[in-house]
Amino acid sequence: MLLFRIISTRILQLVPVFFGVTFMTFAILNLLPGNVAVAILGSYATPQSIRILNQQLGLNQPFLVRYWEWLRNFFHGNLGSSLETHQSVISILSQRAPVTFELIIVAMCIALVVAIPLAVLSAKKTGGFADRMSTLLSMIGVSVPGFVIGLALILLVAEKSKIFPASGFSPLSGGLFSNLRTIFLPAFSLGFVLLATYTRVLRSDMREQLATEDYVLTARAKGIGPWSLIVRHVLRNSLFGFITVVALNLGTLFGGTVIIESVFDLPGIGSVLVTAITDRDSPTVQGIVVVLALAVVLANLVADLLYVVLDPRVRYGNAGE
Amino acid sequence: MVTLASELVSTEEPPRRLSRRWRYSLRLWIPLTGLVLMLAACFLAPLVLHIDPPNGGLLTQAWLPPFSAGHLLGTDGLGNDVLSRCLYGGRVSFEVGFSSIGLGLIVGGTLGMVAGIKRGIVDVVIMRVLDIILAFPSLVLAMAVASYLGPNERDVIFAIAFFTIPAFARLARANTLRIRNQLFVVAARLSGQKDRRIISGHVVPHVLPRLLTFGLLTVGIAMIIEAALDFLGVGVRPPQPSWGAMMAAGQPNLSNAPWILFAPACFLFLTVVCINLLGDELRARWEDPER
User: Looking at the domain covering A95-315, what would its CATH class be?
Assistant: First the structure.
């Protein structure tokens, strides 16, 4: 029953967040100075043609009316269409989302595969070799922008060996191998930064649990070995909180994909967004930003729910505040 | 209580303690020196030493590799000295990094402390609105804001500052809540002090050091975001030198003139590493004063 109540409150909380996210995006993109019609027609446009275009685009309506109109369309599954290419934003998204999605998934996998063992090893022996390596690695990761790593990889790997191309994308339908070849370098550059964050967070959480939690003491008293204590008890407990970190990081990750996609010339959401922003293509920017923000909100919801479902302490209501 | 207890059980021998302290102070002083040197190089060196102007190089001098005569880090495609552009470009990074974080810290910190002291509806409204900002892919929206406002340094600062507000507010609120019911705050409240006086007199001295340490760590992130915005062409643009814009200019010639891109990248990396190491060490000292 408690489980049901937690889940339903969490879902109800989404409603104000949804309106907040859409309203704020709309407000930021519409109330900033700069006229879309001028941007489209160029600075030599006559006042008359600007007025006509404003009317066609509905830009002469008051702000709140336009927001309401946009919301109504949104609930009908219509995000408007690009001012430049006249393609609908929904079709742009559905065409390009798989690339971005794949990039994020592969990057996350690379990061997790390295971060979890590294965090376990460095939590097991503080100050040991693995601990120093992971400190070094995560310090590099949080201090270098992902695109610099990407560019370094292009120079050092892509141009020397012909295995991984420096740009372009081959879809999954063209064979798994050639697909992975094109996605590996961008995913690695994105994953490296992610890896640093993951290792840092997981390591410090595991250390804290080892130092403070009662169950560690109990397990030690039972005579459990150090490996089994770390892997079966501490790691398991730390992973609960880690899920939340992974979800919270998704917003930053979207930001990273935008740049990485531009560097490696991948046909994902990010590269179309950069073009749309420089072209002042407001409907496209708005649609993409809203969808990305909602994705972050949903991911956080899923993380919270997973947390509730997986961790019995939350389920039985004695997890404390 | 806890610190008292650990003091009581502390059995460390004096000599070992001395060496540990020495090590930790190196951890503090090395990044601090690095940061001060970098600041001095960017802001003072061009004034004191003879360094080429960042613009107006000769095309006959273009594409010189590093360690050429008179151009330690070589020249770019327009013949401008890369070292000089790195130094002048660093000013942008430092200015944007510190002022955007300063702005975010002041606004976010105030909101967080107010929310923590007032509680109730004020708390709920402030934190919910900030949660919404937290949901945004901040770099993406900062790109849009910076691009729409026009490419200049001031608007990049605003765009970055806006998205740092929620993190500072959360931290300030959490720390305010921690002391909210401690005796000195309760006593101030019972003696009839207004919330504003309680915040400025009792909460700020307690919360500010933590905010500043966290702020230092985020300055590195702000510098990276700034470089990313410039790299994508929505931040500071050439001819004004900035690390991100220099990297963007170097990208097309990555294979034949990599120094144009990697020189500013190294400057950025060294600066951010120093900031992060310093921030980590300060945070560790705050969390565990025993060290």
Answer: mainly alpha
